[in-house]
Amino acid sequence: MPSNVKKSYDAKRYRMVRRFGEVAGDFFRAFCVLFCAAALTCAFIYVYSYLLSSPYFAIRETSVRGLNELTEKDILTLADVKSAQNLLAVNKTAIEKRVGDNPWVKNIYVGRELPDRLVLELKERQPLALLKNKNDFYLVDMDGSLFKKINQHDEVDLPVITGVGKEEKTKQAFFYSALDLLKMLQGNRKYSYLGTISEVNVDELFGLSVLTERGLYLKLGTDGFEDKLGKLKAVMADLEKKGMAKGLLCIDLGDASKITVQRKNIVVNGQGETRGKRYRI
């Protein structure tokens, strides 16, 4: 065999051996990576399964926080957490859905405190008023959401918003004005002379009017409520001095520069022995 042919043959054989070695090395490294990944996956599955079945993480306490209207029993019934269920196996989304179906629940957070405590943190809706819609009444929260229809077993004592139905979009601005007015009056001693607000009426043309348990019927118009009520305080003080503050008073505050008072000698009784919570200003 000529020397140049032999050299060409040896070079080709060397290249083939080198390429085979490279391919074998790559295959071996890939095999090692896959083997390690499979081993880690199996180990993870084993550890995860062990933790989910370990009695160390069994729920021994369920803490319910943020309750006012609802009771702990109500929430635990809705949550439907099984006795001694593993804390890590709890389906948080399912619990949030079940508890959130209660109309009083605005937000709920489900958390875990290892090793054995489940935490249900609630934010309830704060009722501000009742909305009268035809012959039905609905609870309205601070955001203006109608979240619960009142039935004969509910005991509530809240101001009633009348004159606007659930579907009357043209009066929505006045509806939210009524809510803002009630929030301004609620718990504010500056307006204690008004007494308890019984009703806020919404009229698309004349704006808002308010009826209180003291026998005051106030026509407030469409805006500037805080300024008008500030001027009303001086008017009421003057009426008190003159002994004219008793009975039914119809006070027109639509024009703050020209307040008119009409007095009728009719004593308006409050709600008396009405049961349930009282939300006073």
List the helices and strands and how they pair.
Elements: H1 3-53, E1 61-65, H2 72-79, H3 92-100, E2 105-113, E3 117-124, E4 127-133, E5 136-141, E6 146-149, E7 160-162, H4 172-185, E8 197-203, E9 207-212, E10 216-221, H5 225-241, E11 248-252, E12 260-264
Parallel strand pairs: 1-3, 4-7, 7-8, 10-11
Antiparallel strand pairs: 2-3, 4-5, 5-6, 8-9, 9-10, 11-12
Outline the structure in words.
The protein has 281 residues and is α/β, with parallel strands linked by helices. The chain has 3 domains: 3-53; 56-124, membrane protein fhac (Ubiquitin-like (UB roll)); 127-264, Cell division protein FtsQ/DivIB (Rossmann fold, 3-Layer(aba) Sandwich). Helices cover 35% and strands 25% of the residues. It is built from 5 helices and 12 strands. The chain has helices at residues 3-53, 72-79, 92-100, 172-185, 225-241; strands at residues 61-65, 105-113, 117-124, 127-133, 136-141, 146-149, 160-162, 197-203, 207-212, 216-221, 248-252, 260-264. The strands form 2 sheets. The chain has a 9-stranded mixed beta sheet with strand order 6-5-4-7-8-9-10-11-12, covered by helices on one side. Strand 11 (248-252) and strand 12 form a beta hairpin. It is elongated and about 135 Å long.
Task: Give a quick set of tags describing it.
281 residues; alpha/beta; Rossmann fold; 3 domains
Strand order of the largest sheet: 6-5-4-7-8-9-10-11-12
Beta-strand residue percentage: 25-35%
Q: N- to C-terminal separation?
A: 115 Å
Uncertain residue ranges:
266-281
Please tally the helical runs, counting DSSP H or I stretches of 4 or more residues: 5
Overall geometric form? elongated
Element-level helix/strand string? HEHHEEEEEEHEEEHEE
CATH homology superfamily name of the largest domain: Cell division protein FtsQ/DivIB
The CATH topology of the largest domain corresponds to: Rossmann fold
Q: Which percent range fits the helix content?
A: 25-40%
Mean pLDDT: 85
Q: Main sheet, how many strands, which sense, barrel?
A: 9 strands, mixed
CATH top level assignment of the largest domain: Alpha Beta
